[in-house]
Design a protein that fits this description.
6 helices; mainly alpha; 142 residues
């Protein structure tokens, strides 16, 4: 359930920018993002709109993330888990705990949805699997 009172768009923008700042430097995720995002300002605006929609219900996001992820070669469950771990770490650094907790839970759903769709698209003959649930108490592995 979205909640306009949960957080502000500014808080979401801080989370998004902090996360992608880390992701761009990450040895596993950085090369993927940097190879496929040509305009970072535009991308960060789109992702901020996405999170504003799922957290606050603003409805500004009009993109289609599934086809963009389906076009990427060689994604793995480990990469999605790395994305989740980095997102969880970044969310935990935010002062708005309610936003951080909700965003982390939704990030797990988003990652599972994209990973499930990716598997179906790339390997339709194989039964897809979900990502293991993340444990917010467990520290991120390097």
């Amino acid at each position: 359930m979205t909640d306009p009172a949960l957080c502000t768009d500014e808080e979401i923008a801080v989370l998004v920018h902090a996360f992608y700042g880390k992701a761009r430097l990450d040895p596993e995720l950085g090369p993927i993002f940097n190879a496929h995002v040509a305009d970072w300002n535009h991308h960060l605006g789109q992702i901020t709109d996405f999170w504003s929609g799922v957290l606050r219900g603003t409805g500004r996001f009009t993109g289609a993330p599934m086809p963009k992820h389906m076009a990427l070669p060689d994604l793995t469950a480990a990469l999605f888990q790395r994305w989740l771990a980095l997102f969880r770490e970044t969310a935990a650094e935010q002062p708005n705990r309610a936003m951080a907790d909700r965003a982390t839970m939704l990030a797990q759903r988003v990652a599972n949805s994209l990973w499930y769709g990716y598997q179906i698209n790339r390997h339709p003959e194989t039964l897809p699997s979900l990502l293991p649930a993340t444990d917010p108490a467990r520290p991120m592995q390097p």
